[in-house]
Amino acid sequence: MKKNLLISLKLTVVMLILCSVLYPLLIAGIGKATSGGGKGKTLSVNGKVVGYELIGQKFTDDKYFWGRPSAVDYNAAGSAGSNKGPSNPDYLKVVQDRIDTFLVHNTGVKKEEIPADLVTASGSGLDPDISPASAYVQVKRIANIRGIAEDKVRSLVDQHIDKTILGPSVVNVLKLNIALDNLSVRTPSEK
Questions:
Q1: Alpha carbon separation from 191 to 62, 140, 150, 156, 161 (Å, rounded)
Q2: Which runs of consecutive H residues, i.e. helices, occur in 52-138?
Q3: Of 152, 149, 121, 156, whose CA–CA distance to 135 is shortest?
Q4: Is residue 117 within 8 Å of residue 72, measured between CB atoms?
Q5: What is the pLDDT of residue 73?
Q6: Assign residue 156 a region: left if phi > 0, alpha if psi is -120 to 50, beta otherwise?
Q7: Extents of the domains making up the chain
Q8: What is the pTM of this model?
Q9: Among 188, 189, 175, CA closest to 65
Q10: What is the reported pLDDT for 191?
């Protein structure tokens, strides 16, 4: 009995040291070795941090590209999905409300032209990317509001498509909106 108790106690101490001290130190060390030093990849404009590259933000102004909706209102401290299935009436109402809002702000777009990622939240609720189709469907609205030719806005989207090896191509919404602001501040002769 004493022998088993002593073995259990030793194993508990070893696991406590491994799981509570060594493993967190290892993960922190790996984080420090990454770009950003484990603090995330920040994006800055004029020396001011405007957001994180890998965390979505809420853009609702019509002059900006909208990202994926968030089930947690883009709160990085509470990453989560909605946990509601595709046949849940509450979820269907939320999606329909998003579709209706999008159609009001994007006249001329038909319901069937709206990509799913513009009306459904990602599993984390923090997805910073949208599909190229989701960016292209917003080009007309943004061009009209900003007074920029649609082909210039479309070209900007083309420049911000990240082609991945294993997954689908994506567009980082924050990077695209920063570039859009930079495009908009050019003088009339540059447009």
A1: 20, 17, 12, 13, 22
A2: 89-105, 132-136
A3: 156
A4: no
A5: 85
A6: alpha
A7: 1-39, 41-184
A8: 0.79
A9: 175
A10: 44
How many CB atoms are located within 10 Å of the residue 48 CB? 6
Nearest partner of 42 among 181, 186, 175, 184, judged by Cα: 175
What is the tens place of the pLDDT at every residue in 70-79?
Answer: 888 888 777 7
Nearest to 54 by CA among 159, 172, 170: 172
Token pair listed for 64: 């900006």
Residue 120 exposed, middle or buried by CB count within 10 Å (0-12, 13-18, 19+): middle
Categorize the per-residue pLDDT at 187 as very low, low, confident or very high, splitting at 50, 70 and 90: very low
Transcribe 10-32 into DSSP letters.
Answer: HHHHHHHHIIIIIHHHHHHHHHH
Instruction: Enumerate residues 6+ apart whose C-beta is below 8 A from 181.
Output: 45
What's the rounded Cα separation, in Å, for the pair 180 and 63?
Answer: 9
Tokens encoding 164: 């991945």
- Collapse the DSSP code of 56 into the 3-class scheme (helix H, G, I; strand E, B; otherwise coil) and give the result: coil
Backbone angles phi and psi of 79, in degrees to 5: -60, 125
